[in-house]
Write a structure and sequence with these properties.
The protein is mainly α and about 325 residues long. The protein has one domain (about 30-310). It is about 75% helix and about 0% strand. α2 packs antiparallel against α3. The radius of gyration is 23 Å and the shape is globular.
């Protein structure tokens, strides 16, 4: 019995030691800075390559089956470097999972906002300036996306502001239970890196094959390039949010924190649902998701204030 316990403790120690050594190789400040530079160069080079493809398409040197939209207007070339920016934001989302739940959620909101901004550049190539603006599909969608991006930008500001104000008022927590929770989040973030990398590669190559061989079956879900990767990405985030919610019970069972974490799960689900609809409903779901998350955080912070100043909320 004692031997089995010793073996168990030794296994746990080896896991902890291995994670401490490998984790900085993927999710450290130094790696983040290097990855940022790689993404910057990738964005610049991809923008130039996309412009070249548009030029070759216009002079007849290149013919792609589904190239309409992304290979006809030079403005749509901005779509590609924005995709690289989104890759970096996804890395930051994983990077901040062990550090702060609210920062991790903020990154989710920033990512969906950037997806809409990127969609705006694609929609610009399909705009038709006419008196029938409010009857044309692409013109209407461009209008919806423009208004939505402004609303989301402001909601993210409010979310970020509430988070910062609360952190300045709540004392730091270095309890053993929190340290164990942080270790678990590090393990989760470490696992997410290869999962998201593989998902990204599979999504891209599946979409690319659909462009050069549109007759290949099983590619119906990628008819809208804006949905490539991100519908599956937010599905994974729902799973991550639920896992964090359940494991957080080992750290705290305070009602307001449980409701906050549960609300964040609902917010992520609403964002995921937005990829299954089009038009105005898509925009409503995204705005509703971020608005719901901000309201949940704001009410949670009021509970935190009561706990600190009046001792009403007890663990």
């Amino acid at each position: 019995m004692i031997v089995n316990v010793l073996i168990t403790f030794e296994s746990i120690y080896l896991i902890l030691n291995t994670l401490d050594r490998i984790y900085p190789l993927i999710l450290s400040e130094n790696v983040k800075d290097k990855f940022e530079r790689i993404i910057l160069w990738g964005a610049i080079i991809s923008f130039i390559v996309h412009l070249a493809l548009i030029f070759f398409n216009q002079i007849g040197w290149l013919q792609m089956a589904n190239g309409k939209g992304l290979l006809t207007n030079p403005i749509s070339a901005i779509y590609t470097p924005f995709s690289f920016i989104l890759i970096y934001e996804i890395y930051l989302l994983v990077f901040y999972i062990p550090r702060s739940t609210t920062t991790y959620i903020t990154k989710q909101y920033e990512i969906i906002t950037l997806v809409i901004i990127r969609r705006l550049f694609k929609d610009l190539s399909n705009l038709e300036i006419s008196s029938d603006w409010f009857t044309l599909k692409y013109d209407l969608q461009f209008t919806f996306d423009t208004i939505t991006s402004i609303i989301l930008f402001y909601l993210i500001y409010l979310f970020f502001k509430n988070d910062k104000l609360n952190r300045s008022k709540v004392p730091a927590d270095d309890s053993p239970s929190l340290q164990r929770f942080i270790f678990f989040k590090k393990s989760l973030a470490f696992t997410l890196v290869p999962v998201l990398a593989i998902l990204g590669l599979v999504s891209f190559f599946t979409w690319f094959i659909g462009q050069i061989q549109p007759s290949v079956g099983g590619l119906e879900s990628f008819t809208d390039i804006n949905n490539v990767f991100f519908d599956e990405f937010f599905t994974i985030l729902i799973i991550v949010d639920v896992i964090l919610l359940l494991v957080s019970f080992f750290h705290t069972d305070q009602f307001h924190k449980v409701i906050r974490n549960s609300g964040f799960v609902i917010s992520t689900i609403l964002i995921r649902m937005s990829f299954s609809v089009e038009g105005l409903m898509n925009n409503f779901l995204i705005i509703g998701a971020v608005l719901f998350g901000w309201l949940i955080l704001m009410i949670h912070n009021k509970f935190e204030y009561l706990e600190k100043n009046q001792g009403i909320v007890k663990k």
